Amino acid sequence: MTLSGPVVPPRQGEPQQLVVLLHGWGADGNDLIGLAPALQPTLPQARFVSPNAPDPCDQNPMGRQWYSFADERPKKLKAGYERAAGMINDFVDTELARLKLDDSRLALIGFSQGAMMSLYVALRRARPCAGVVGCSGMMIDAEGLDGELTARPPVLLAHGDADPVVPVQSLQEAVGVLAKHDISAQWHVSKGVGHGIDPGALEAGAAFLKTAFNEAARGTPAA
After folding, report:
1. What average pLDDT is seen over the chain?
2. Partner of 145 at 20 to 30 A CA spacing, among 14, 53, 62, 177?
3. How does pLDDT run across 79-101, given as a tens digit for each residue?
4. Which pLDDT does position 220 carry in this prediction?
């Protein structure tokens, strides 16, 4: 299966960066592509694309999911992560090749389940991308990183401290895993915010990615 989804082209000229937005469980690409206009002033040369997850959501067939939560046995979940990661990597590789860009010009932004997949994919790619922004997510399969880590892109994690779906403690747990593996991590906690992306988190993400792309362009080691 080939992923596809809505696209917002660069505000200026030909694409010099690729920003892939991975939506949450029960949504689709139209959900996160709406972030692009807010990010464009900071990233005017980026192409934004938000692929739809491959499967109908277990509890909301109008939405999509990257993997199922229905069977939480570790082997079953791992198979779901791997399947989704393979499709995301194929999608990203196709986009980069078409744009004649490499991983240093790539950033991933994910929300909730999309944040989980953004981290899962980015830390296992052959080369580090410029940066990862994970919003309202958590680290999945942390144990697997011991044998699977291949890239150390800089990471920004954002979370609302009133999130009733994925507790804000998940942010600090993920920071601990990243630190264990010598991966640069920043974080932004939004006061009084639930399971969502508020303007403060979006502003922090835009600033983080601008710096990350600049550092990647200068060849600052990221792995």
Report:
1. 95
2. 53
3. 999 999 999 999 999 999 999 99
4. 54
Residue 2 is assigned to a structural domain of this protein = no
Measured from the Cβ of residue 133, the count of other Cβ atoms closer than 10 Å reads 32
Query: Where in the sequence numbering do the catalytic residues fall?
Result: 112, 163, 195
CATH number at 60 reads 3.40.50.1820
Domain housing 199: 7-217
More confident residue, 25 or 60: 25
CA distances from residue 189 to 106, 149, 174, 202 in whole angstroms, order as listed = 24, 26, 13, 11
Q: What percent of the chain has pLDDT over 70?
A: 98
Tokens of 75: 């082997």
User: Are 66 and 54 in contact, with CB atoms under 8 Å apart?
Assistant: yes
Tokens found for residue 113: 């389940």
β pairing state of 7-8 and 46-49: antiparallel
Q: Is 223 within a domain?
A: no
133: in domain? yes
User: Token digits for 94?
Assistant: 């196709």
Task: Read off the pTM.
Answer: 0.95
Q: At what angle do helices 113-122 and 74-99 cross, to 10 degrees?
A: 70
